[in-house]
Write a structure and sequence with these properties.
Order of helices and strands of chain B: HHHHHHHHHH
Oligomer: heterodimer
Order of helices and strands of chain A: EEEHEEHEHHHEHEHEEHHHEHEEHE
Largest sheet of chain B: none
Strand order of the largest sheet of chain A: 6-7-8-3-9-10
Helix content of chain A: 25-40%
Structural class of chain A: alpha/beta
Shape of chain B: elongated
Strand content of chain B: under 5%
């Protein structure tokens, strides 16, 4: 559906040349929800804007839905853009138009006759759950409702691809979740390919099938979301994964606990998929002569399975301890001994 | 009662002068609106980072606008005498004031249009582009509607400036309340005539301001 080949984007400014996107190659298949994560300035914004021709790559080619968007211009680019719609962090609605008129705007652009336009708008309002707000102006809507208008507007011309530019970054956590659910629903119901950029791993975890991690204009890591969660290779990826698997205060808590429990071992367990649902701790206490103290834990749901971490404190005879750890390892659970007291 | 307070006021003449002032103001506001809107749009669209980015065109329009905005109106009228004679064949009467009024006010309004357009969120223009909108669609369905409150409050301010310009134009023979106040009032030392002409001008200004304000607040859905 989307093919990005050897793409480079260089901006020349007074301070010299800046390479915003550096040799990126990506293939995104039809019906996929593909996430790009990176901190601000990583080039993800430039990358997503090249998918609908708002930015033109300095080198390389971008093909979306059989259109070489990096090359076409004028009428054919405008036509192609009707199949590649976009939603934005700040929604970018026209304040002078009501909800209904905002959603009708892309249909006006596409030259859909008025009767049909109104029918389609009503369908879309139902699809995104905005019944009763048709005649409100954007200023009378909450952030979540505004983004729903943005999504309805983006879907109006039955696009093949939906680009999400930090679509949930301006929303509170609860609203973010409801918008993400809506996106998954649309993806399943309409088979729409979705490309989203974000700096929140939470968003990737919740809805993406595959993820690319960007840093300094390059894609430094790429793969199915669960794999990336299981075995993050790059330092930056590990940091992003920590965003969702470990609460921020974990490090301090662990240090504190190490002081509190001078004996025994603090172990970090990583559960992936099936292993997350087994009674590991029960087995541990039944079969080995160790005491187990659960310090902290969290299980996260991703689109292709669950993933979790658990910090436990083990105490007992040295021999029993190493046997217990060997047992955990045999259960396909990742084990990392944080410290030996 | 009125006759004792304002002994020298000829009401028939006063009404005629008021009509002339209203005529000059109305015609010049309409043409200034259209001309200023076009110039303002050109200034905005040819600026850096915009759809028709063009440094030379932008610089030329910008300089012309600045020059005409800087010339004091009373001097502009005099400077434009040959031009007015050329296109209208006369220097007397309400129509003779129109070229100077429009050339004086349109650049002023063009700047206000430009400022209004610059206040539109760039993201909204980007969104329209991402939907495949043509430039004409962006102008008529995004730029103008989204800046309409600014455009209306700008033309209100411009219209009020135009009322005072008509008074100045009156002094050199264009008719209207300014002409009456100067010739009948000042030069013949009939201060009651000047007073009444001033009051009528003030009423016209207040009415314009009131209409402008209510339209602006009605349009603004932000």
């Amino acid at each position: 559906m989307i093919s990005i080949k050897d793409v480079k984007k260089i901006y020349s400014s007074r301070q010299g040349k800046v390479t915003a996107v550096d040799n990126v190659n990506l293939e995104i298949t039809e019906g996929e929800i593909f996430g790009v994560i990176g901190y601000s300035g990583a080039g993800k914004s430039t990358l997503i804007r090249m998918l609908n021709g708002l930015e033109i790559p300095t080198e390389g080619s971008v093909i979306v839905a059989n259109n070489e968007v990096s090359k076409i211009k004028g009428g054919s680019l405008r036509k192609a853009r009707q199949e590649i719609s976009m939603i934005f962090q700040h929604f970018n609605l026209l304040w002078s138009r009501t909800v209904r008129e905002n959603i009708a705007f892309p249909l006006e652009i596409a030259g859909v006759p008025k009767g049909q336009r109104m029918k389609r708008v009503d369908e879309l309002i139902r699809l995104v759950g905005l019944e009763g707000r048709e005649d409100a102006y954007p200023s009378q809507l909450s952030g979540g409702q505004k983004q729903r208008v943005g999504i309805a507007r983006a879907l109006a011309n039955n696009p093949k691809v939906l680009l999400c530019d930090e679509a949930t970054s301006a929303l509170d956590p609860q609203t973010t979740d409801s918008i993400l659910e809506l996106l998954v629903d649309i993806n399943k119901r309409l088979g729409l390919t979705i490309v989203l950029i974000t700096h929140e791993m939470h968003v990737i975890r919740k809805i993406c099938h595959r993820v690319a991690v960007m840093e300094g204009g390059k894609v430094v890591e790429l793969g199915p979301v669960l794999d990336v969660f299981k075995h993050p290779k790059e330092e930056i990826t590990k940091r992003f994964v920590q965003q969702v698997t470990e609460p921020e205060e974990t490090k301090e808590t662990i240090e504190h606990l190490l002081e509190l429990y001078p004996h025994g071992t603090v172990v970090q367990l990583g559960f992936v998929g099936e292993a997350a649902e087994q009674p590991l701790i029960t087995n541990l206490i039944r079969h080995y002569h160790v005491t187990v103290n659960i310090l902290q834990g969290k299980i996260s749901q991703t689109q292709n399975g669950s993933y979790g971490t658990l910090f436990i404190h083990l105490d007992g005879e040295k021999e029993e301890l190493s046997k217990a750890i060997a047992y955990i390892e045999s259960q396909q659970v990742g084990v990392e001994v944080i410290s030996n007291a | 009662m009125l006759e004792t307070l304002l002994p020298n006021v000829n009401w028939e003449k006063m009404i005629e002068a008021t009509n002339e002032t209203l005529y000059m103001t109305a015609i010049s506001v309409v043409i200034t609106f259209v001309l200023g809107l076009i110039l303002g749009l050109l200034l905005f669209l040819t600026a850096k980072g915009n759809i028709w980015e063009n440094a030379i065109v932008n610089k030329v329009i910008s300089s012309v606008v600045n020059v005409f905005r800087s010339i004091p109106f009373i001097i502009l009228i005099v400077l434009l005498i040959p031009f007015t004679k050329l296109i209208l064949d006369t220097m007397i009467g309400e129509n003779a004031a129109l070229p100077a009024l429009i050339i004086g006010a349109a650049p002023f309004y063009a700047r206000m249009v430009e400022i209004g357009l610059r206040e539109i969120d760039k993201g909204v223009i980007e969104a329209a582009k991402s939907m495949g909108a043509k430039t004409s669609t962006i102008i008529f369905k995004v730029l103008i509607p989204e800046s309409l409150p600014a455009l209306v409050s700008g033309i209100t301010v411009t219209a009020i400036a135009l009322v005072s310009y008509t008074a100045m134009a009156g002094v050199i023979g264009a008719g209207g309340l300014g002409n009456l106040a100067y010739l009948e009032g000042f030069q013949r030392s009939r201060s009651d005539v000047t007073f009444v002409a001033t009051v009528i001008i003030l009423i016209i200004v207040f009415i314009i301001q009131f209409i402008g304000d209510s339209i602006t607040s009605k349009l603004d859905k932000r």
